[in-house]
Amino acid sequence: GAGVSQSPSNKVTEKGKDVELRCDPISGHTALYWYRQSLGQGLEFLIYFQGNSAPDKSGLPSDRFSAERTGGSVSTLTIQRTQQEDSAVYLCASSTSAGTLNEQFFGPGTRLTVL
Amino acid sequence: KQEVTQIPAALSVPEGENLVLNCSFTDSAIYNLQWFRQDPGKGLTSLLLIQSSQREQTSGRLNASLDKSSGRSTLYIAASQPGDSATYLCAVRVSGSARQLTFGSGTQLTVLP
Lengths: 115, 113
Prior knowledge:
The complex is a heterodimer. Chain A is an all-beta fold. Helices cover 0% and strands 48% of the residues of chain A. Chain A has no helices and 10 strands. In chain A, strands 2, 4, 5, 8, 9 and 10 form a 6-stranded mixed sheet that branches. In chain A, strand 4 and strand 5 form a beta hairpin. In chain B, strands 2, 4, 5, 9, 10 and 11 form a 6-stranded mixed sheet that branches. A 5-stranded antiparallel sheet of chain B has the order 1-3-8-7-6, with no helix packed on it. Chain B starts with a strand and ends with a strand. The interface between A and B is medium-sized, with 28 and 25 residues.
């Protein structure tokens, strides 16, 4: 595809429900990143995938958050037992490699609202 | 821990003015610095990427500079237009094994017609 795509664009859920957010990176990009943008918190790193290596999960805020990347392409971010503080825009980015050049290209984001 | 600060938080200028947005970071050990634009309700659009070995990058009316030793970068916008109105974010990738970007909180720019 032409760019990073994410779905859904908006998600409203009730507290306690699980949600899945999807990211399709740019074709050929081996590195994929998830970030969260909250009001008053700015953009925070969540998790990073590079090829078949173990993901860097150091930014995940709790064990309710998990992500997987199937076949080195599409990624799914799962939030279990959602809380109101999980409300944010979740952004996905991809880059060609994890080398020093890795310019990151972002998708449009998924706006999550937990009622 | 790397911290990135952007000043001012908001800026309003009349159309046609040249302007400078500032970004500072606390740890000079970086691989690169990236400037983004974010329109309301949208994702991030990459504007410029400066490698740690570079001093500046230019794209059209935009020029970004990097002074790694002092932990500063500026984004210069020439002849501003109302369409430049957006939030501008700078982000650094620190040296070492980490691959993620650390972001500043952004400068919200309004260019008045």
